[in-house]
Amino acid sequence: MVFRWFFALLALISFPLTAHAREEPSIRSLLEALKIPFSEEAFLEEVRKGNSETVSLFLEGGMGPNVLDSNGRSALVWAAGNGHAAIVKLLLQNKADLCGGGSQSPLLWAAANGRREAVAALLGSGARACEQDKTRMTSVVAAAQNGYVDTVELFLEETADVTEAEKTSALERAAANGHLDVIHLLLHHGVAADAKTAPEFNPVGSAAFRGHTEIVKFFLDRGADPNGPVPVYGAPLGAAAGGGHLQTAKLLLERGATPTATALRSAAQGGHLEIARLLLDKGVDVNAVDADKTPLIAAIAGRKTNMLPLLIERGADLNAGVGFVEPPLLLAAQSSEAEMVRLLLKGGANRDVRGRDGRTALMWAAISGQLEIARALVEGGADVRAKDQMGRTAQVYAKERGFAEVVRLLMEAEKKKAITD
């Protein structure tokens, strides 16, 4: 870089400047001497690199401060996001658009990346006015989510318009991402430990889902409700179960969380075996229905074969559907998981159980060409001659769809049955 500037100075001798300002041709020649073309692409590249002297030359040479890249991001967005505070100030002095340049404002980019000096420069120019809808992700929340405590502190201490809703959202995001120092800061600034965001997200539930056990403990120690509402998962225990975090689940149970069907369904659907075992040991009904699923149906829906032996051992109903949900064997036959089918048959499931349309598991295997599932069912004694409400057999379905190997398997099975009959 030193040599490049040396040659640039030589270029200035050939193109002397006036006492008041550099002329555009001289500046462009200087850039050419640096082997930098006077183009929008080159300008943005210098902004991204943080070369403030070169950026200043571009601006003096007539380059507009609101140049956008191919993704619609402005020079100010790049400078702010990369933490080049000197360039942020240069661009602002040249009337750069505080709010423009992509789906996220320069302030949000700077905050999300913890660029404190750039944030300070933008705040000083009134950039908070770009965040009129403070119910969405704002710069304060983005800084908290990513753990930039110094940047969050800057917002809280240097601006007067941080809303209570923003602080609450920042607390929830900090909890979800394990940033205890940010949590301490927000509580110091008056945010309640049990604060909830819309729609009903709370710090304990968010931390539990991510398995931040120490943060869950932190909030519980300060009076947070271990059974507070959490979307989808019902309560923090359900969130821990859905996320597969055994130690977090144990802590919540120790601190008064209620073992629920939602938690068991979440563990089963996620394949979290030890959490499911823990909940069953705590007395949750193995056949409890939640969100139109028993734990067994949830495990099959999630294709979590590892869950089936435990649920079968604990007495799961192998033949019961729920509402419009088909019985387990039919669901397994449609899942492409042959081992599930084998486990259900071994556990005593009705091999010829029918759904609402009269189809059996063998018919579903034939319809989708699942050879291994069809084989498991045939070996398990499924009736190859069974007909549905339209009078079709599994073999008819396989022939219609061109699944030759399944057809061959079923024909051989039917021949054997004819011999034994």
The end-to-end span amounts to 91 Å
Helix content: 55-70%
How many H/I helical runs? 26
* Largest sheet, strands/sense/barrel: none
- What amount of the residues lies in strands? under 5%
Sum up the overall morphology in one term. elongated
Structural class comes to mainly alpha
Protein name: Ankyrin repeat domain-containing protein
Organism: Candidatus Manganitrophus noduliformans
Keywords: ANK repeat, Repeat, Signal
Give structural notes.
ANK repeats lie at residues 71-98, 102-134, 166-198, 259-291, 291-320, 328-356, 357-389. With 421 residues, this protein is mainly α. It has helices at residues 2-14, 24-33, 40-49, 52-60, 75-81, 85-93, 106-112, 116-124, 139-145, 149-158, 164-176, 180-188, 203-210, 213-221, 236-243, 246-254, 261-270, 273-281, 295-301, 308-313, 328-333, 338-347, 361-368, 371-379, 394-400, 404-420.
Give the arrangement of secondary structure elements:
Elements lengths: L1 H13 L9 H10 L6 H10 L2 H9 L14 H7 L3 H9 L12 H7 L3 H9 L14 H7 L3 H10 L5 H13 L3 H9 L14 H8 L2 H9 L14 H8 L2 H9 L6 H10 L2 H9 L13 H7 L6 H6 L14 H6 L4 H10 L13 H8 L2 H9 L14 H7 L3 H17 L1
Helix pairs in contact: 1-2, 2-4, 3-5, 4-6, 5-6, 5-7, 6-8, 7-8, 7-9, 9-10, 9-11, 11-12, 11-13, 13-14, 13-15, 15-16, 15-17, 17-18, 17-19, 22-24, 23-24, 23-25, 24-26, 25-26
